[in-house]
Amino acid sequence: MDLLRIHEFQYLQCMDPKILSGLVPSMYCHPLEVKALENLRKTKGLPILVNKFHEIGLEQNMQLQYQSNCILVNSRNFNHLVYLLEKAKDILQVDQDIQLCLQRTDKLEGLSIGIEKPMIILSTQAVDLLSHQEILFLLGREVGHLAHQHTLYKEIGLIFPDLMEAFSVVTLGISSLVSAGLKYALYNWDRMSELTADRGGLLACQDPDAAFSLFAKLAGWPERQWSSINLEEFKRQIKSFNAGSQKTFDKVISYMLGSNSWSIARAKELLGWIDDGHYQALLASISIASK
């Protein structure tokens, strides 16, 4: 190991997030996700879609697609990333074997797939540009997704349009009307599941500044000025953000506007969790051990 890597690894070991012994996923599940999941599970057509997903082996195909276009991470090539992933798993009390991969994209993001053989895919952009604390937040988010067993519905959501195109509604036994309702229910749950994942990310890094620094970068803070992000000003913007009502019409309009990171809305939910004392109360309520 060269001198730079030795210093980097020593720095990582000085990071001080605590192991949250006794933590279970339900302790940090966002209430909006709980409600959205209840609605999703009551949506007509979901069991048929899940059965078809398993029947045609879509998960295996998705994993093969990612494995054919990524770099597998191990202790021989990216030891610091292995360390951060294991740290996130230890903190969030997840003992699954998780394969970490890198894929070249221009987004600061991670993705988790796989039910029996979970994988986390990090973008090379994130690894190149983010701090170790921010990467730990990203990894904690994905470990949180896995801890909450989000992958099945997330994978279905990823391939839903292609699935509906490949198989006619008659073949699937789902009417066009039911298909539209299911698409919306999946979308809404997917958005709410990200709020739970953000909580997992914060519990993993235990560094609110790192979390909000990443949100600022996702929202568009110019890269050349990342070293001088004004977090207080950014938090003022977060607090002033008004998402409006949660009426069905508002949700449908948001869906029609397409996909984005919703970084300000997500940051507002996470800041609220901190400011109302629930984050610190959770840390105080469970056994915390240094490692």
Give the second-level CATH assignment, the architecture. Answer: 2-Layer Sandwich
Report the sheet-strand fraction.
5-15%
Q: CA-to-CA gap between the ends?
A: 23 Å
**CATH topology-level name:** Zincin-like
Q: Indicate how many domains the architecture comprises.
A: 1
> What is the CATH class designation?
Alpha Beta
Order of helices and strands: HEHHHEHEEEHHHHHHHHHHE
Biggest sheet details: 4 strands, mixed
Counting DSSP H or I runs of 4 or more residues, the number of helices is 15
Question: Which structural class should the secondary elements be placed in?
Answer: alpha+beta
Your description of this structure?
This protein has one domain (20-289): Metalloproteases ("zincins"), catalytic domain (Zincin-like), CATH 3.30.2010.10. Helix content is 62%, strand content 8%. The chain has helices at 3-14, 31-41, 46-55, 58-67, 79-91, 124-129, 132-147, 151-166, 169-172, 176-205, 208-219, 231-240, 248-256, 263-275, 278-285, and strands at residues 19-21, 71-72, 99-103, 110-113, 119-123, 287-289. The chain has a 4-stranded mixed sheet with strand order 2-3-5-4, with helices on both faces. A two-stranded antiparallel sheet has the order 1-6. The longest helix has 30 residues, at 176-205. The two termini are 23 Å apart.
